[in-house]
Amino acid sequence: MSSNNIYILSRPVRSGKTTELWQWTQQRYAMGILTPDSPDGRTIYDLATKQSVRFEADDTTEDAWIIAVGKFRFLREAFLQAQKILAEASQADPDWLVIDEVGKLELEQQMGFEPGLTQIVRDYQAGKKGKLLLVIRDSLLEKAVNHYQLQKAEVIQNTGALP
Questions:
Q1: What's residue 1's pLDDT?
Q2: What structural domains does the chain harbor?
Q3: Which of 43, 47, 5, 10 lies closest to 25, judged by CA?
Q4: 31 vs 72, 79, 87, 97, 148, CA distance in Å?
Q5: Which residue has the higher pLDDT, 14 or 103?
Q6: How distant, in Å, are the alpha carbons of 11, 18, 58, 62, 67 from that of 1?
Q7: Residue 117 CB partners (closer than 8 Å, separation 6+)
């Protein structure tokens, strides 16, 4: 059991984490973001408003408007929208704040959901009410735990293990 209010859902890439989280959040007062795939590519789904924003750039998007991570191309504007969603969710103090997912962009380039992500983690480490659920693929788990000092967080492999 964790000694704080931070949880990490960690499994391999493409193992159904986002789908499982979507189902899990439907029964809880949860805010934050999910990043599901859609026919048009990956989107950012705002759990509070139930609105989606296109996240993944298509081949026609100008390079000035994208952030590239490996083979993926993401829209800069979508990250700004995600940061706004997360800031508002953190201020609202839901039972659960969900961030899907913390990846290489945040860990290696201090971009993506940063700098807001670091502040949210610090707030929950300092005893903010509610619980924080971070999604981190298993291959980045150790790096993320060290980067955000999450040694006290409870690492789980499925939402059924959450309180």
A1: 40
A2: 6-161 (3.40.50.300)
A3: 47
A4: 26, 17, 10, 5, 21
A5: 103
A6: 18, 23, 42, 47, 37
A7: 86, 99, 102, 106
Burial class of 22 by CB neighbour count within 10 A (0 to 12, 13 to 18, 19+): middle
Of 98, 124, 80, the closest CA to residue 23 belongs to: 98
CB of 113 within 8 A of CB of 142? no
Burial 138-162 (b: 16+ CB within 10 A, else e): eebbeebbebbebeebbbbeebeee
Which residues pair with residue 99 across a beta bridge?
33, 134
Residue identified by tokens 């083979």 is 71
Tokens of 17: 């984490």
Sign of the dihedral through C-alpha 57, 63, 65, 69 = positive
- Which positions ≥6 away from 100 have C-beta within 8 Å? 17, 18, 21, 32, 33, 34, 35, 135
**Cα 119 to chain centroid, rounded:** 14
pLDDT in tens, 42-81: 899 999 999 999 988 887 777 777 787 877 888 999 999 9
Alpha-carbon distance of 28 to 44, in angstroms, equals 19
Handedness of CA 53, 105, 143, 82 (dihedral sign): negative
